[in-house]
Amino acid sequence: MCIRSSSGDWGVFVQTLIISCFIALIQFTSASLLDKLQNNYLVSDFHELIRTDPVANSTLQLRSCTLFVPTNAAVRKYNGTILVSYHMATVPMTVRQLTKTIPSDFEGNPLLYITRNRKGEVYVNNAWINQTESTEIVTQENKRQVMHVINDVLVPLTLLPTARTQVTNPNAWEFLQQSDLFDVQENRLRTYRSQVTLMRKESLYQSPGGHTFFIPVDEGFKQTTRSSLVDRKVIDGHVILNSVLFSAAQSTEDTHTTAAFEDNIKVTVNFYYDNDKKLYVKSNTLVGDSKHSTGVVLAQVLKANIPVSNGVVHLIHRPLMIVDTTVKQFLEKNFGCNSFQSLVDNKNGALRRFYEVIMEIGGEVLDDINSLGDVTILAPSNEAWNASNIENIIGNREKMRDIVNMHIIKGRVDVEKIKQSNENMIGQFPTIHSSTFLYFNVNGDDTNEVVTVEGGGVNATIIVPDIAQTNGFVHIIDRVLGVPYTTVLGKLETDPMLSDTYRMGQFSSFNDQLNNTQRRFTYFVPRDRAWQKTQYDYPSVYKKLFMKDFAYHSRCIMERHLLIADDIYTMKTLAEMTKKQNDSIILPTFRDSLKIKVEEEVENLHDDDSTSWTGYVILWNYKRIRVFRPDVECTNGIIHVIDYPMLEKKDIVVSGG
């Protein structure tokens, strides 16, 4: 195909192109940001604010600038007075050109802070910049202007109307020193300020640059001896140097080292949101000393993201690092917030629902906790109690007491001890509920570590570990233990200890039946380490078990482990049947039958204490197979986790043909 064009046609084309470009240039240079705002339905509310602000209006008519524009949704959500000049800067900057700090046009030119996170998102203070809506123009006066649309209103630190002293653009120390003059709602900071002065740490809060400061309010010092525990190291633990952390721009997975990070003491902090979207900060003392206990302290952020000239301040409801309450006080006085606010004021504590359940069953559990000495609580979050399967039993006081007791361990069990017990292949601890154990599993490395706990058929993840108390630890978990919520298949799919059995059942299609709620299964499930042991005993067999070509053989082995009957078989029932028979018992499996004996045995749990437990051993085909986790309840049956599969070398035979 050939296109022919005469010289005349080409001339017309060039003229048309030049005229089009000229028109576009006129449009580009003649438009103003005011026009852009007026025509953008997302930000029309802020346009109205600028239109009625003479200074801002003049800036957009005559000067180069950068304008951060909140959306209509952000403007309508904000209750206070929006200060337009704090959203403006005299230097025009595209997203790429935005520097870490930008002087605003507000009185005293307080800084705006720019954060770029690992996802490529950009924030100004606590507001996310919608980069697709950023616009750059040149006015008729040849002034360059840039507009960025943001999802929140920018709020500077302002004085109270009653303040008689003029303070502009204070640093963190000036803010702390004169906090009564500023609009920080009802929060008062006098106690902490006195301790900073007493410890001569004013210079830390005066440090130039950009830092993050956590300041506890006076309410957090109602316990009379608490202020005396705020020493120089504790004050250091409230400051993150050389990082300005506005909450919305931070990932809760990011851990930040504090100024208290040296050879003898190491303290980190990170943010945490509960399911109600309330913001907390956690300090974690990794290395402590005689005055500073290791563990986590959880503090609610009462007023976040207060910009100062050398960074950002967050007001918190209690001091970090200080461990001065018992486990009982932690639950009783504050619903899990580490302060001594009245119960009426503290309706939104991180463990409010757990405390309410304890009180609904009579409150004696608190006395039991107090009498145990050292104690560890696995405390379900508020959201965990909203599950529908729990609503059905919440009125059964006896059942609920058993469930609550399943969350209590006698002794101090932090994550480090859990990790050590996993190294010894015995990640289990007894609860105060009779014959009930909790089984822990640790996955990932130190930077991405996930700790799960299983109890009564429920797998939960520890979402806030190691909240330290004077007599133990509290771990916040995301499910209520002891109330089964999933089928046998669901349990295999979600339990990190049983992934190999689940995988084998998937490719052999054996798992398909395990979701049937009309049947009652008893399933002897080898845990992952059980299959790993067969690798040493039967190397060739182990390899074939996880190959699709041998799916039939894998299925036959699985069928040997699955009992199908009108009811389930607990390990205690099987032991009693063996004792009564005084010989092997024969059980109905999916195919044929299973001939076993079940015996009880007493063992010590850990090398470092004398805790003993009554466990079970299965005798099958001259093998002694230990039951690692008995009686894991599911909605359609029960699982017994075993330490070795019922497997022989001859189970996988390949004929010459």
Automatic annotation (TrEMBL):
Parts of the chain that traverse the membrane: 12-34
Domain (FAS1): residue spans on this chain: 30-154, 169-320, 324-481, 485-646
Q: Which domain of life is it from?
A: Eukaryota
> Which InterPro entries does the record cross-reference, listed alphabetically?
Adhesion/Biosynth-related, FAS1_dom_sf, FAS1_domain
Q: Which UniProt keywords apply?
A: Membrane, Transmembrane, Transmembrane helix
Could you tell me which SMART domains the record lists for this protein?
A: FAS1
What Gene3D superfamilies would the database entry show?
A: FAS1 domain
Recorded hits in PROSITE patterns, A to Z, give: FAS1 (PS50213), PROKAR_LIPOPROTEIN (PS51257)
Enumerate the PANTHER family for this protein: FASCICLIN-1, PERIOSTIN-RELATED
Q: What is this protein called?
A: Fasciclin-1 isoform X6
User: Which organism is the protein's source?
Assistant: Glossina fuscipes
Q: Which gene is the coding source of this polypeptide chain?
A: LOC119638846
